[in-house]
Every structure is written in C-alpha cells, then in structure tokens.
Write a structure and sequence with these properties.
Helix content: 55-70%
Distance between the termini: 56 Å
Number of strands: 7
Number of helices: 11
Largest sheet: 3 strands, antiparallel
Number of domains: 1
Strand order of the largest sheet: 1-3-4
C-alpha cells in the first residue's frame, strides 16, 4: 500500500471502478472511449475547450490594454495547485488526522498525480472564473460599482453555473466523495458537501476575482496572478469560520452554511438584476457563446441522467451512485438563465463583436 492510496482512498476509487494502487504517479493517458461513463469525454471537451477559448479571449484583452482577464486566468491555476494537493493527499501535509481523505476523481483521458487530478479539472478553474468574470464585467458592474460588488456578483454567477455540475458529478461517476468523512463532507445537500458548495463554488472564485481586479494595475501581470491565486485560500478560511464555531454539530453547521449561501444568492442576484447600463463596447464572442453553450450541455447531461435520478431510492441510483439535489440544480439552472437573460437584455442594443 502506497501513501497515495490509503484504506479510504482504496475504497472510494474501487467504488468508481479502478484500483488506486495501479496508477501512474506522474501522468496517465487512456482512450476516451474506455472511460466509465459516455458523458466523461464530452465533459472534457466542454471544459478544456472553454479554458482555451477563455485564454484566447484573455490574451486579446491583454493586448488591448486590460490585463485583468489574464491575471485571473493564471491566478486560477495558481489557486488550483495551492489548494488541490492537500485535498488529494492530506497525509502529505499533516492534515489526515484533521480532515481525513475527502474525495477522488474517476479516471479521465489525461490524469496527473496518481490519477487524482484530471486535466479537465485543471482547465475547470480558469474556465469557470473567466465565464463568471466576463458576464459580470460585460454588465458594467466592475466599472460602475467597483471590485467588491463585482466580486459578489461573480460569486453568485459561479454558484449557479458551478452547482449544476457539482450536483451531477457523483451520479455519473465523475468523482466520489468519501462517505466516511464526516468532518469535511457533512453537512451535505444530497451528495454535495455544503462546505464545497459555498467555499469552492462561490467564496474562492469571488475572492480571487476581487484580488485579480484590484491587483490588475500594479506591477507585472505574472506576479499579480501568483499573489491573487496564493491569497485566495485565506478568504476560504475566513468564510469557513462561522460554521466552524458550531463544532461537531452538523445541524448548526448546515444552518450557518445555508445562511451564507442565501446571502450569496440574495446579494449577487440583486447586483445582477439591478444592472441597467452595460459597458459601451461590443459584447465579446466568448461571452456571447460559451456561457450559453456550457449551460445547454449541462442540461443535456442532466436529461440523460434524469431517469436514474427519478428512480433512485434513498438517494442512491440502481447503479449504486449517489444523486445530487435536483431541486437545487433546477434553481441554479434558473439562476444561470436569469443571468444570461439579464446580460442579453441590457446588451441587446450593443453591437456584437466580430
């Protein structure tokens, strides 16, 4: 048994259909048609393609004199490599006694670090951060209301776009949470830990955006990207303090985390909906195309998963996978639709970018 595959990791990965002892410590590549679920290669195309699309857009804006997109894109990767290794290998950082083994990804086409880190996850962070930032920036919120209001709006946009993915992944075996971990993975909303829904899907990305925008005009952009990405976990620690005061009382933790999520929804949605004047510039092609494309593909994934979801008993499908909260995912689809409707409502008289 290796330190990369303890008893909990072994149980979780075998539930996903592979043995974590039989993996490459650096990188592994496998045919996309051999993956555990047919949606997995399509998910990779959607996310990796979106990250590349976002990078091209960020470079274009950098050349036009605005480095915020490029800072945010690279800060997302810095944040990834700061936060993910302790989640995958808590024993390496002396955290196994505190947090324990949390979750494992399934095997995708390209995988790193003992098959714990799929390439599409590397791409997911810059993709989702750029998606949310560009929508909010195009509404003129950063310019007219400042970086704090813009970051809150980004936290909301990330929440609604991220959680339609987060509540589907466990059912389709994209990843699996460790059911024996009650420190991090409880309380939960169906199969999704509330700490993940709040801290990873909203707080981290909102804080990173705030830092990237505030630092965008100071010094060279690579340094700013490193600083923004490295400081983002501190915001997660601060946001996690209220629920930690509840100790081991998961009911109290659920109420606190739920209240914080409600605040993200109320504040972010109000900032988005009350936007009236977009930026006086063409709507970028990335903003016009990718958010809607992402939402349509996620909706298609949900439709294919719906029969198994509806026939699940006690939150478990006939294939033995846990389901997410369909009602919350539906609310997030509605919230994401509201965001895009608002964007196109306030921009309908603006010319489109070539």
């Amino acid at each position: 048994m290796t330190t990369a595959c303890g008893l909990d990791a072994e149980a979780v990965t075998r539930g996903l259909g592979f043995d974590c002892h039989d993996v490459s410590p650096v990188v592994s590549v496998r045919p996309p048609w051999d993956l555990a679920h047919p949606t997995m290669p399509l998910l990779e195309i959607l996310v990796i393609g979106g990250a590349v699309f976002a990078l091209l857009h960020a470079v274009r804006r950098h050349r036009a004199g605005d480095s915020a997109n490029l800072v945010l894109w690279w800060a997302s990767l810095v944040y990834l490599f700061v936060i993910e290794p302790p989640l995958y290998f808590p024993e390496w950082f002396g955290l196994d006694e505190i947090y324990g083994f949390i979750f494992a990804h399934n095997q995708f086409t390209v995988q790193f670090m003992w098959d714990r880190l799929p390439l599409y996850i590397v791409a997911f962070y810059p993709m989702i951060s750029q998606l949310a930032y560009e929508v909010v920036r195009s509404l003129g919120i950063f310019r007219r209301r400042g970086p704090l209001a813009g970051a809150v709006a980004v936290a909301f946009v990330c929440q609604v776009f991220y959680e339609v993915f987060d509540h589907l992944g466990p059912q389709l075996r994209w990843w699996a949470w460790n059911p024996g971990n009650h420190v991090v993975n409880q309380p939960a909303m169906a199969s999704v830990p509330l700490q993940s829904a709040l801290l990873f899907a909203s707080v981290s990305l909102g804080a990173m955006t705030y830092l990237a925008v505030r630092l965008a005009g100071n010094g060279r952009w690579p340094v700013r990207a490193v600083v923004a990405g490295a400081l983002t976990p501190l915001a997660m620690v601060i946001a996690g303090v209220p629920s930690s005061l509840a100790g081991t009382n998961t009911t109290a933790q659920a109420w606190v985390l739920g209240a914080e999520l409600v605040l993200v929804w109320l504040a972010g949605a109000w900032i988005i909906v009350s936007s009236r004047q977009p930026l006086d510039e063409p709507l970028p092609v990335f903003t016009r195309i990718y958010p809607a494309c992402y939402l349509v593909v996620m909706a298609a994934f949900w439709i294919t998963a719906l029969p198994s979801y509806l026939s699940a008993e006690n939150g478990i499908t006939a294939d033995g996978t846990p389901v997410g909260s369909g009602l919350y995912a539906l609310a997030c689809f509605a919230g994401a639709g509201l965001v895009l409707a608002t964007l196109h409502r306030v921009r309908r008289e603006a010319p489109a970018a070539a």
